[in-house]
Structures are given as structure tokens and as C-alpha cells.
Amino acid sequence: MSESSKDPQTAILLVSCPDQPGIVAAVSAFLFENQGNIVDVDQHVDSEYGVFLMRVEWETSGFAVSRDEISKAIAPLAERFSMDWSLYFSDVVPRVALFVTRDNHCLYDLLSRHESGELRMEVPLIVSNREDLRPAAERFGIPFHHFPITQENKSDQEGLEIELLNEHRVDLVVLARYMQILSPKMTEAFPNRIINIHHSFLPAFPGAKPYHSAHRRGVKLVGATSHYVTEDLDEGPIIFQGVTPVSHSDSVTDFVRKGRALEQSVLSRAVWLHLKRRTLVHGNRTVVFG
Amino acid sequence: MSESSKDPQTAILLVSCPDQPGIVAAVSAFLFENQGNIVDVDQHVDSEYGVFLMRVEWETSGFAVSRDEISKAIAPLAERFSMDWSLYFSDVVPRVALFVTRDNHCLYDLLSRHESGELRMEVPLIVSNREDLRPAAERFGIPFHHFPITQENKSDQEGLEIELLNEHRVDLVVLARYMQILSPKMTEAFPNRIINIHHSFLPAFPGAKPYHSAHRRGVKLVGATSHYVTEDLDEGPIIFQGVTPVSHSDSVTDFVRKGRALEQSVLSRAVWLHLKRRTLVHGNRTVVFG
Amino acid sequence: MSESSKDPQTAILLVSCPDQPGIVAAVSAFLFENQGNIVDVDQHVDSEYGVFLMRVEWETSGFAVSRDEISKAIAPLAERFSMDWSLYFSDVVPRVALFVTRDNHCLYDLLSRHESGELRMEVPLIVSNREDLRPAAERFGIPFHHFPITQENKSDQEGLEIELLNEHRVDLVVLARYMQILSPKMTEAFPNRIINIHHSFLPAFPGAKPYHSAHRRGVKLVGATSHYVTEDLDEGPIIFQGVTPVSHSDSVTDFVRKGRALEQSVLSRAVWLHLKRRTLVHGNRTVVFG
Amino acid sequence: MSESSKDPQTAILLVSCPDQPGIVAAVSAFLFENQGNIVDVDQHVDSEYGVFLMRVEWETSGFAVSRDEISKAIAPLAERFSMDWSLYFSDVVPRVALFVTRDNHCLYDLLSRHESGELRMEVPLIVSNREDLRPAAERFGIPFHHFPITQENKSDQEGLEIELLNEHRVDLVVLARYMQILSPKMTEAFPNRIINIHHSFLPAFPGAKPYHSAHRRGVKLVGATSHYVTEDLDEGPIIFQGVTPVSHSDSVTDFVRKGRALEQSVLSRAVWLHLKRRTLVHGNRTVVFG
């Protein structure tokens, strides 16, 4: 049974616009006047850039504007404040593709949380550059697609992947320890809709083999970072981070082991936040309405 | 130089009332119509109890209602929604009494943050049931008042303390490792205005010698809890908590040592939150607009 | 490929005895004289109880005493120092039974780490008081045994469970969110060989529904505790603990969600430590040679 | 009263040498044969570099070798195993110079722990490149030496500082938020005897203004790192690290504030570990026998 099954159906509006007085007043008045029962409202002003960001969630039941008309009803407000905005409904379940390579822990963790109802998503397919995790996918009855990647075929293969993702109407791609760098073709096809887990506390130890680098440097904590994927590797907007203590007596293998629990929890948290529409990318930062 | 010296002067309104639609709309409209530039707004609905809680902060400069008239201007709103509310101004510096016994670390930490401007408060006096920390108080040029407490004289001594606190117009009492249980006389005189630091992760290990109990139990983390003081010892609303790892090789003395850094940071955080009017007590819980 | 596959085969000796000078010297001399290459040695003196505890691990390859003779060779040392001791070999893979009820996250986490080779164990069976997780067990091809438990049949059912566990030569029982209190019959059958995960920071919130209690108390951190199971519920020796921050805006459902990542990582860590023979129970505390 | 006043007097031997069998046996036999009561023994093998590192602490009372003869008695062992070693006595109190600039929190924290007896050290002087913290030093009755530093005079000034430190027989220099880069002249004069606190999770955000960089990058945790100072800025062996959560709603000023508690606790922990001779530098890593 899904945890959310008893939750009321809601609409979620995400807004970013130039900061100016009156935005909260105008949005809340719009909802109040239409009998919208606000479940949650969060706002943030980035004073450095003069940007106002807001997330507001209200119950659709009892709301005077019918679902199809909401966008039209918001338009005047949006124009008045030059808003970038998007609207979501809690009962529209996002479709998520999981990309994996060899490590199974993030994959199993996401599927476990999916099964328990914590992550409200559909998982129409799993994509991999290797065959290793096909049995894991099959255990859960999820179609597994193998796209071997070489330097030469990468662009072509990603083209095929994008087609497949579109065919399956995928909203979000989760790189659950996918050990391939995406080309711009892919990142441009899914802007702010690809989430990666990097196994270090970014910006420390970007790139390959971060646990080896961390061990060499003699750090006393290892970290994990979930972030949206942009063209610049490991430079995308950070969603969530965690660390766990290590000591001189831990080998690289111990770093890897201790890092696993971290990676899976940091990634699952990021996916949950995205699915709940609690993230808003702004510049190279993520506002998380946690 | 105080960190806050360049901050704009603001008014802060804290509200709690029965939950109903339209509160955010009404409050934000009131501020907007009076040219109030909102700096920060946070709200929380306790759906279990049907209570709405809000903190809104706006710049006084440019606000159409003069400072003395704000309360009167809010009154109709407050009545309409049956609000409990309080109004603060960021330039009114709270007056804080520090109560100590023998341990110096929380005292020095608060005074260090006071000196650096992080904690915007005045400290007109330090109170103790012992003489041990008089030299520490004198180092910082703060009057030190010694009230020896016995079972017999406790009520009388606390009566004198309350008089002294009132004389100094004290807004907040901070028990910075004050090793005496307060009687109801004191807690009633300063409701939600006494902050204590308890050296455990409450509700684990209430009462005396928590590090000894924690060591006996063989825990792998020790904690610290800052909370408002109510009549029931160690049962008051929690403001902030922290933990730090310990191991079998740590003695009770090591627990005490590792706990110190925790205690001072957990207490200072709570005092900062209170001074910034970011806490709202509701039932036995503290809403922290962090 | 198992992480451990390239590790050398080792013998592990766990010792506890009354503290007295010369134990380290005697044990290390014994190993040195027999060409034992020490991989790891750890010791702890509980000065309160005057108890000496030691873990020493050495390579079996090159060791002058043949595997079958080691116990006999240790006997004189053991007698001289009145040692309680046990001897393990890294290539003897422990057999572990997983007990579950309804929540899947700890189960999947253990199986994922088993599959990746992190947890070197065999899992001959999964036991449950409900049918819910049978499909999960079947996914991994592990026999699932359903023992419905009522007040009336508990003792009988546990008797059958013990028979089954013995039949499968089970070394360790892991309660992976098994929502039944074990009777003394079971705990006596597997002393210091049953590991439980409790979803709170013990000794805070023992018993049922700890997240509900934590929410009611208004804590700012939720915790998880892995411990050996003794007759006294939630009172057994603690192996590992963790916490994660929560706020007033988190519902009980959010506590449950945030607690999941914690529970699985805290339990998996405890199981790893046990399988590596890095734990030594002494009184009601666990010495963890981490 | 110092926490350590009732502790027994001990000798501490720190050893590093090429790894080979028999070292633990030889050292423990040496101590046992001379009636040395071992209080603590810790060892680590860096298998990558084939280096054995050990810390052993034993009571001087009852030890058959007189204090002055211990070094001579150890010599044959040291030669046999090609040991680098050093010997300390717990009753020889290290002399520590504190270097500061403007921020007071690390200074007060160290002095508070000094006063409480947690940090067993003498503080004969405080050095600064500015006058700001003279009043703080005077509060504690510690001589304050002001050495203004410019690009031109740095080498000369550091020369004078070294003279002064030698005059005061300083064993350890602690950079308690000292905002000047040391020249090789200074780092060579005190190899592995200068501890710095850097206000980031190294190797992330080395150099100046790490909180600004962290804010710009949008991290979700800020960190602090204590390390030995080597010629390469922010590249020295790490002793201890910590992090604390931040969010999009935290300004740089909030990062600074939240970082303070971290910096002081991470620095004080490192100083405590050094004073207890629990650190051993090996290559660019610190083995911490915590």
C-alpha cells in the first residue's frame, strides 16, 4: 500500500521570477479567492540575483478552477510578475528510467522504495552499458536495455537511448551508479531531468575513482552528492549531500563499503525530492523546499 | 563589527491560530498594501491539532504604518483569525541572563559569540549557585551574582533571583550548564523564556549524570539537547539536538570531553534561534523556522 | 566478484579474560614463534570491570600450526590467563537467517550487499510471521517460511523455528524489521547471535511505534539502533547507532521515510561487523573492533 | 580540577618502521619483562607502503627501567626493526603558541578547554598579525605579541617569530584562524608541529574565502578540516574533519555562523589528539589512534 494513497490530490505550482513586492500576496489571494486550500507554501528570495522562488501546493478537491483551466487562470499572474512557472498534479505519476552499470545497491534501493510506495513513480525500463545487472532487473520484472558504449558509438547509442526514453514518455532519468559520462546530446534532451549520484563530497574528488583519491589524500570523512546533470561533468546543481566517518584503518575497499549506504540514501532522497516537485533549479544551485 | 550591522531593520510577527483558509493571503495583503517589503515568510500547519503557525519578517523602512501603530493595525486581522501573536523589532536587543555552575565551556562560547556580534543580545548579569566561574565573568566585565542554593532556601533564593532579573529587565534566561533544578516559581515567571542545555539526546538519559548512564548502557553516540524549560524537568519543548560518535574505548571522561563541543554548539544555536525570533512553542513542541 | 576474494585466508581469535600484564606479549609471541603474520590486532581494557578483550587476526598461510591444531595450541595460553575465547576462519562462510514482517527495505539492503559480496554469508532461508514479503524472497530465490504468530501459539511456533534454524545450521539470525518480540526460548537458543534493528536511538523510545513517540515528543533527530537481542526487549548490547535530522515540518510518515535509510545502513553495518568477527559482547556492552 | 590529575603517569612510545613480523611481540615482551603495565596499545599497518605504525602507552610507576634509561633500553629494539620512534611522558606538559588574526571563537574555545583541564598544555604566548584580539588575550592574562605582516617583511617577521617561539620553548603552534600563509621558513622550523584549522571540507574549497566559494557552488553541507601545516598550503596531513548541514536559505553569513561551532570543535579535537600523542604523520596522511 502506498504511503501516499490517503493523501489528498493536490496541485503544485513552482515559480521563479524577478523579486518584487506583492508576489506572495497575489498568489495566495488567487488561491483563496478560488477556494484553494493551501497544503504547503514555501518561498525563497535569492537576494544576490534578485530572484524570487516559490512552491505552493493546494488541494484540487474544492478548488473553484477546473484542472484544465488552471494554467489559463494563472496566466495573468504569471505575466504580471514575469514568472517562469510549472504546474504539476500529485496524481500524475512520473515515469522514471534507471541507468546502471555494475553496482547494484542504488538500483535495489530505488526499487525497494518504489515497491514500498515511498517513491511514487513508474519505472518502465532500466538502461545499462553492461549486462551485469540484467538479472537484477529481471527479478523486478522491469525491461532491461543494454547499450554498449564505446568512444566511437557513444553519440549514436545515446541517440537511440533518447528515442527509447521518449517512446516510453520518460520524465526523469536517474543515473544509479551509471559509469559513463553523458554527452551534451543527452543532457540537452533532459534539462534538469537527469539526476546523478557521485561518490564524493563534491566539489572534492570529481571525476573517476573518487574513493581512491580520497584514500590517497587521507580524509577523515567520505561523502556522496546527488545533483542534476549538466554539460559540465560533476558541476551540476547539487540536490543533497551526505558524509560518513572513515579512519586511517579503512582501506579503499572499506571506503567503498561505507560509501554505499551513503550513496543510496543520498540518491533516493534526491529522487524523492524531485518526484515531490520540491526542487527548483536556479542558476547552478538547487533550491530544495525540504 | 557586528555581522548584523548592515542588515536592514525589520519587524517580525509570530502568529499561531486555528487553521483556516485565507490567513497567508490576508497577512501578505496587509503587508503589501502598506508597502511592507517581506524579507522572510515561513508557515507551518500542524494538521494533527489544526493549528496554523507563521513567522513573517519585513523591513520597517518604507513601511506605511509607523512603528507605534503596527499593533493597532494588526488587531483586526488578529481578531478575524483568533490569532495569538507577538511582534518584535530587530533593533530592540534582548537582555539575557546566563546561569552557570561550574563548567565553563557553554559560558565562554556564548560570550565569544556575543563579542563577535553573532548573538545580538545584552548580558547584564551572570547568576550562579557557586563561586567557581566568578573569575570567568570578571574577565568579561559582567556582574556575577552568587546565590547558594540548598533544599531549604531554594524558594527564597529563586524569589530574589526573579527580583534581580526583573530589575535588569531580562527577557531570556539561559541555563548554560546550571546544575540546579528550577522550581515552578521560576519557570512560571519566564514561560518559554528559559533555555536549558541537557547533556544527552533527550528523551534518553534525563536527569542527573547522563554521560554516566550513557556509558553504562554502551551507546555508540552521545547527544545534547537544548530546550525550553517547563515545570517538568527535561520534558520541555526541544529546540535543537546534536550527537557525536563514541566507542567502547571512550571512558566517561571521554564522553564528557566529546560532549562539550556538542553542548556548546547546540545551546548557542538555540539561543541564536530564539534571539532571531525563529522559534514558536506550540503544545510541547517547538516550531523552528530555521 | 566478491570484494573479499583476493583477501588472504585468515584466522581470527577473540579473547576476553581478567586483565593482567603480559597477555599481549604472550599472544603475540605465540603467533610470532609460529610464523603467524598478524593482519590486525586490537585490544581493549575495561578498567571498570578489570576485563581484557582482544581480537587478533593472522594469515593461515605460512602459519606453523595446522588449522586443526590451533585450538589445542592455544589451550595453554588460554588456561594461563583464564581466557574465554573463540576461533574463526575467514573462509568459513556464516549461515544467516533473515526474519522479516512487512517492511522490505532492510531485507533488500542485506540481499543487495550479499549479492555484491560485501556481506560474506549464506542465506539459506527467510522467516516471517506474515506473507507480505514472500514475493521479495522469491525474487532472490531464497526459501521463505511463514510462521504466523499469535499469543497462544508463539512458544510452539518458535520451537519449530528453532528446529528449522538448526536443521539449516544457522549461525546468525538477523531481525530485519521483524515485528514480533522473541520469547526467551529463542534468545537462549542463539545467545549473542541474534541481531535486531530498532527504529529509534535507544534507550529513547523503546517498544512499539517509536516514530510516533518521537514525533509526539518533538525531537529534532530520529535514530536507529542495531543490537544483540537478549531477554529484555530493546535492552541488549548495542552494536551501532545512527541519527538523521528531522524538523517540525516532518510528519510521522516523513519520520518513517527518513528513518528507512538509517535503519538499513545501521543494520547492515552491524551484520558486517558480526560476520567479520569484529564484535565482542561483554556484560551488556558490545566492544566493536571497527 | 584537571580531568587528568588522577590519571597515572605514563610513558608513550610512537613508532614507525618497515612492516615485518614480530614487532608487536618484541615491544610487548620488552614492556612485560620490565614490569610495564600497558595502558593502551594501538597499531596500524599501511599495506600500500609496507609501513608499520604503533602507539603504546604504559605506566611509569612500577616500570623497571628508570625514566632516564628508557631511551637507551629501547635502542636495540629500534635498531633491530629500523624504527623511527619518539618517547613522551604524560607529565611533561607541552608548551603551545596560539596564532590568531581577528576571529575569536577558536581562541576562546582553546582557552576554555585549557582552563577546564581538558587540554593539558601551557600557553606562554599568543601571536597575531593584527591587534584585534589583544583584549581577549589580556582577559586570560596571556602575553600578546603583534607582528604585522606585509609581503615585504614576512620573512623577517617570521624569523623574529621563530626566535620568540624558541625562546619560549614552544612545542606546538596552533593556527586558530590565523589568516596568513606561513612561509617555508616557519613550516620547516616546526615540522608536524603546526596545526591549522581550514574552514572547509578539504580538499574542497582550499585557499581564501571558502564559505563564499561553497555558497556559490550551492553545497548542502559545509565543513572544517584540521591538519598539520606543510609547505603546500591546505595540502598537509589531515587530522580531523567535520561537516554541518546548510540549505539554500542560508546566506554566506549563515555559512560563517554555522561553520564556527564546527571549526572550533574540529580544531580542539586535533589539538587534544596531538597533545595526547595520538597522532602519527606518515607520508601525507595522519594516523590517528583515537
Oligomer: homotetramer
Q: Termini separation of chain A (Å)?
A: 24 Å
What number is the mean pLDDT of chain A? 95
CATH architect. name of the largest domain in chain A: 3-Layer(aba) Sandwich
The backbone outline of chain A, from C-alpha atoms, is: globular
Précis, in short:
Chain A is of the alpha/beta class and 290 residues long. Chain A folds into two domains: 3-89, Alpha-Beta Plaits, CATH 3.30.70; 95-288, Rossmann fold, CATH 3.40.50. Helices cover 31% and strands 28% of the residues of chain A.
Describe the protein's architecture and organization.
Four copies of one chain form a homotetramer. Chain A is of the alpha/beta class and 290 residues long. Chain A folds into two domains: 3-89, ACT domain (Alpha-Beta Plaits), CATH 3.30.70.260; 95-288, 3-Layer(aba) Sandwich (Rossmann fold). Helix content of chain A is 31%, strand content 28%. Chain A has helices spanning 23-33, 70-80, 105-115, 134-139, 154-167, 184-189, 210-217, 252-275, and strands spanning 10-18, 38-46, 51-59, 84-89, 95-100, 122-128, 144-146, 172-175, 194-198, 221-228, 238-245, 279-282, 285-288. In chain A, the strands form three sheets. A seven-stranded mixed β-sheet of chain A has the order 7-6-5-8-9-10-11. In chain A, strands 2-3-1-4 form a four-stranded antiparallel β-sheet, with helices on one face. In chain A, α3 (105-115) packs parallel to α8 (252-275). The longest helix of chain A has 24 residues, at 252-275. Chain A is globular, with a radius of gyration of 21 Å. Chains B and C meet through β11 and β13 of B and β11 and β13 of C.
